[in-house]
Amino acid sequence: MWGLVFVYLPVIIVGALFDCLQELLLVSFFVHIIWHYYYLKILNNWLWNSHSTVLPHGKSEWEHAFIGIHNMQQRHRKRRNNLASVISRFREGSEALPDAVVVFHKSGEIIWCNRLAQFQLGFKWPEDSGDNITNLIRNPLFVEHLKSSDYDQPLDLTSPINAEKMLEFRVMPYAKHQRILIVRDVTTYRQLDEQRRQFVANVSHELRTPLTVLQGYIEILGMQSEAGSRQEKAITVLDQQTSRMCSLVEQLMTLSKIEGAASIDFDDEVNVPAMLKQIENEAHTLSKDKKLQLNFAVEDKLQLLGDEMQLRSAMANLVYNAVNYTPKNGAIKVIWRACETGAYFCVMDNGDGIAPEHILHLTERFYRVDESRSRDTGGSGLGLSIVKHALSHYDSELNIESNLGEGSQFSFIIPNSYLL
Length: 420
Ligand code: ADP
Prior knowledge:
Layout: H1 2-17, H2 21-49, H3 60-96, E1 100-105, E2 110-113, H4 115-121, H5 133-136, H6 140-148, E3 155-158, E4 166-174, E5 178-185, H7 187-224, H8 230-260, E6 269-270, H9 272-286, E7 293-298, E8 304-305, H10 308-324, E9 331-339, E10 342-349, H11 356-359, H12 371-377, H13 383-392, E11 399-403, E12 407-415
Parallel strand pairs: 7-9
Antiparallel strand pairs: 1-2, 1-5, 3-4, 4-5, 6-8, 9-10, 10-12, 11-12
Helix pairs in contact: 1-2, 7-8, 8-13, 9-10, 10-13
This protein binds adenosine-5'-diphosphate.
C-alpha cells in the first residue's frame, strides 16, 4: 500500500496542479503495468528457460517474490536430494543382499529389481520395468499366492529359468500399494533335507530285517528257557528292547514316508468311521490293564478323500498317546464330527497333562516331556511329529491344549475341500 501511495501521490498532486490528472494517471498506470510485465517476463524466463540457481535482480515486491521462490526451490532441491539418497541407499542395500529382490505394484507392474533377480528369475532390467510380474513368473501356484494376499508362509517353486534350481518366494507388503518379493536359492538346503530323509528311510529299512531275525531267535530262546531263571529274565529284557527298536524303526519309516510324499492322491476315499472302529478296538486292547474309560463319539457318514495310511497314523498316534499317558481308571473321549469349516477330530483325556513350556516343542522330532516315562510307554518322541507332517498335507494344524494335573486335548480340523 505504501508503495502505491509513494508512486501515485506525486502523480495526483502534479496532475491536480497542472490540471492534467487523467492523462498523467493514465500514463503512470501504463508505465506501472510495463514495469510489472518486465519483471514477470524475467520471472518466467528464470523459471522455465534458465537453469541457473542465481537469483535474478528485482525491485520492491518483485525482489521479495524472487527470494521467496528461490527459498522454496532450495527446500525442494534439498528434499529431492535426501529422497534420492534414501532410494540409492535402498538400492545399494538390495544389491548387497544375497537374495533376488523385486519391488512391484499391488497390481503386478514391476517397479524395480536387483541384479540377482536378473540371474535367478531371468528378468531384464530396465526392459521389464512396468511389465506385470505374472507375465515373467508364470507358475500358477505363484499367481495364486499373489492373489491370495496371505503371505505368512513362503512358497517353494522351481526357478522359471532353471528347472533344477529350487527357489523360496517370499512376498511382503511394502509402502502403501507396493509389494516386495524376496527370492532365495534353497536348492542346497532342499537337497540336504532330501538326503537326510533318504538316509533315515534307508537305515530304518535296513535295520528292519536284522531286527525281525533277532526277534524270532529271542522268541525261540524264550520258549526254551526255564521259568524264573536268570536266562529268562535276560531274554525278557532283550525282547522288550528289540520290540522298542522295532517300533522306533517303524515310526522312522512312517515319518520319512509322510515327509517324502510331495502330494497326496485325493481321489482315494477314506472310510474314517471304520478306521476309527479299528483304532478303538486296538485302544481297548492296549488299555486293558489300566481299566480306562474309552468313549468314541463318531459321526457315521463323515468320510474323507486322501491317504488312509497318513490319516490313520495321525489319528492312531493321538489315541494311543492318550492311552499311554493317562493313568489307571482315567477317561478318554474321541470325537469325529462335522463342523462349520470341515471335519473335527479331537482326543481328550484326564491324564497328567503337559506343562505349558513343553507344548510348543511337542511336535519336534524326538521331543519327549519326560524321557523315563516315555521309555516306559515305549515312546520314541516321533508320534506327534508324524501327526504334524500328516496334517500338513491336508492344510491342517494340530491344536494342543493341556493343563497340568487336569488332562490334555489334541484336535485338528480337516477343511471342507477334503470331505467326501
Ligand atoms: P512318544 O512316542 O514319546 O509318545 P510323541 O511325539 O507322541 O512321542 O509325544 C511327545 C511327548 O508328548 C510325549 O513324550 C509325552 O510326554 C507328551 N504327550 C503326548 N501325548 C500326551 C498326552 N495325551 N498326555 C500327556 N502327555 C502327552
